[in-house]
Design a protein that fits this description.
The protein is of the alpha+beta class. It is 35% helix and 20% strand. The strands form five sheets. The protein has a six-stranded mixed beta sheet. Helix 2 packs antiparallel against helix 3, helix 4 crosses helix 5 and helix 7 runs parallel beside helix 8.
Length: 451
Amino acid sequence: MTRRDIHAFTSATRQNYIYAAYPDPAVWLAQFDLAVAKAEAEIPLVRDAAGYQAVLRHLATTFRDAHTGVQFQMAPIDAKWPGFLVRFDNGRYRVTSSRLAGVRDDAELTACDGKPVSWWIDTIGQYEISTPIALENSRMTAALRLLMDQDSPLRPRPSQCVVDGRTVVLDWKPAPLDELQPIILSWQGKRKRGVTTRLIGADGVWVTLGYFAPETARQASDFHAAIAAAPSLRNKRFIVLDVRGNSGGPYDWFMGYLRGLYGQAYADYYATARLHIRGVYRLSPAYVALDGEVEQTADAFKTPVDTTFDVNRAKDDREQARAKAAGEPLFRAASIPIVRGKAPTSPVRAQVYVLTDYGCASACIAFVDEMKKFPGVFQIGLPTFVDRRSGSSVAIPLPSGNAVAHFAAMTRDGRERDDNVPQVPSRRFTGDIRDDGALERWVTHYVAMGS
């Protein structure tokens, strides 16, 4: 099963992944062949579902691409834990969710089995994390996996750790996944999806933009309501745009909000980061099918029209249709003109803050790219997630039926932000980013101090 799925994954990569065809397929495929050879060498280690998942996951992480990976469709693997977890906290590793007497939450873990905790984090990153392990979001994910063991044959399980300078022998027992999984996801930035506007503090407003891809008519309606309310916020003392946990979506929704808040002239003058992008698409059968599905559902929620970004839409549609009909492997979108004249006056008098966390991903990072071009806007909170310039993932089921592989079918030539680089706040929140009350108190104090 493992060997067959690895071969299918390899074939699907070559047929669908953008970097297997562009810009330098020979170099990329040579590197990929080495990764496949390592995966095949690991097949003898597979004894069960845990080994199968570990080997497939290791192969997928070699892409270092958040838009590419493997999703398992199997019963959850039983996990064991020693009665507490570990999280990343401002450069240190601290206990969380402790159920073990004598091990307190927030205690610092520094080593396990004679090796510094950084060794364990780097090892987990090598086998299981799809983004570079030097990044904060990667270290948080790896830390949360350190003491949540699922019998991977690729890395050891620690037997004892140093916590607050004291050796703690680890007694591994079945983990209550139903209880722990929501906690783990929350530390990674997963939040309840929502779009709301509410008043806070002394003449401030807190706007939650929890998604840029509505999944229901109600979610679309809530976003349209936020856009409609945005002009009334301009004369507030401060505005917090809270995009924690926003996993992305089409640019159209965030541009609709920015035009509502700042007016079209001002928003279009400064929001130019996405206009440098020139999409290059791999016209595989899977991508062509996906593109057709997107076209059929695009207007279901009355998606705002990003006229500036879509200026070449009709031309690009014709050229892509021609390329598909001709059987060409790639399609490159036309360059978008950036017209610069005299800067308009901002209608927004409020001080604007963009609040981010590790869960701000994909188009959410693109939103921050745009916001940081606006004079006087500050990013606060934690660094965002990261991505490569790739996107538009296609799903390919593997033969066993136990997993679905996802491959980015396009790349964004010209994007100003480099691959796997986060947007970093100018003012960092050092507390628990999940604590809405603490965040609100911090923001109002921050504003009161004139920052």
